[in-house]
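Protein Record: Sequence and Backbone Structure Tokens
======================================================
Tokens: labelled as protein backbone structure tokens, with as many entries as the chain has residues.
Task: work out the structure tokens from the sequence, keeping to the layout shown below.
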Amino acid sequence: MKYEDLSFTAVNKDGIEVICDILTVIPNPEKSEEPYVIYTDYTMDEKNEFVENYGKIINVEGEYVLKTITDPKLIDLIKREASDEIVQYVNKQVQENLD
């Protein structure tokens, strides 16, 4: 767990509870109250790098829920938005304030 405030637990496809960390928060241009996130559960890919997952945070009856995104077009949009200089700057500031 890198940042307690940006960490959460989830159940993976094998039914095991894992700790995940949000790597980047991206504004949702359609619904500002439902931001997109890039997160990792620290599994490694074939290049020995952390796998990045994509999701959207939604509020369901006062509880925040992460909805996983698998649509390739939406993932491409999230990746493009994450590369935006302003988004990168804001995420860097958040991480520095958490350190």
Notes: The longest strand covers residues 17-26. The helical segments are 72-82, 85-98.
